[in-house]
Amino acid sequence: MAALIAENFRFLSLFFKSKDVMIFNGLVALGTVGSEELFSVVAFHCPCSPARNYIYGLAAIGVPALALFLIGVILNNHTWNVVAECHKRGTKNFSTAATFLLFGSIMGRAAVAPVTWSVISLLRGEAYICALSEFVRPSTLDKFPSEFGAEVLARFPCKDVPANLTKFRDEVTRRLRYESQLFGWLLIGIVAVLVFLMKCLKHCCSPLSYRQEAYWAQYRSNEDKLFRRTAEVHSRILAAKNVKQFFGFVALDKEEKELVQEFPVEGVQPSPQWNAITGVYIYRENKGFPLYSRLHKWAKGVEGNGPTPEGHEMLFLAS
Fold this sequence. Notes:
Blueprint: H1 2-17, H2 21-42, H3 52-75, H4 77-89, H5 96-110, H6 112-124, H7 126-132, H8 150-153, H9 166-205, H10 210-247, H11 254-262, H12 271-276, E1 282-286, E2 289-291, H13 294-299, E3 314-315
Antiparallel strand pairs: 1-2, 1-3
Helix pairs in contact: 1-2, 2-6, 3-5, 3-6, 3-7, 6-9, 7-9
């Protein structure tokens, strides 16, 4: 138990430190596997009662998957860029293709953890066996005693059955585990095909060459890192300035004193500037020169974000 908990904390630590999308998604999947194992050991206990098994078994698969999906949507920066875009500018700058790719990006990233949870649950089989054991038709079991029905079948996952039904319990468990694992492998195959098709569609629809798209991804990553780092320093210096104005002095450590001396902050950015660099970005070019982000476009003094006759449109998607 302690090892499982420690493993999950280790994965969470790596999860928040990782910047690469493939590593990021892999850590999400691995963390989900560990969480599902922990859930199975600690929390999953089939009620072994008619009508309750089905609800409990499906809930054990579906409810955590739904919760993980919603968490993935909430933690995705694209989600809040969409909210900001719709609030400030509406959907006038969204083409059908851009909208599809945008929501595909959000849903695809958010689906990593719930799909992993569902696959592991199906491959383990406990929840599926619990949910469907009572629905196995006794007529499909050779020489199954006629006096027993769904109530006894519902107890099969708990092994709480008469001795003369042990061989039937083993057969039912084996049959349902086969079905559960088959659905799990099919889900893996379907997801793999969908990911492949989405990657092909993304690159086929891109107006950029492969190398330029790789450069764009590096630019986005570097801009985000530098913006966050600079915003943290700017806000700290501004806060120090306001605190000093209120108290007459401000208690700074050595590093903060150096920051205040090196980067004097005279004012704050007006709201129109923040609005200009916030929201969904539709890739465009201005007179043949690429504009890689809203910040880049603002710095160049280019107005608007919609597609133009001389430009190309491509949604800002994480690779």
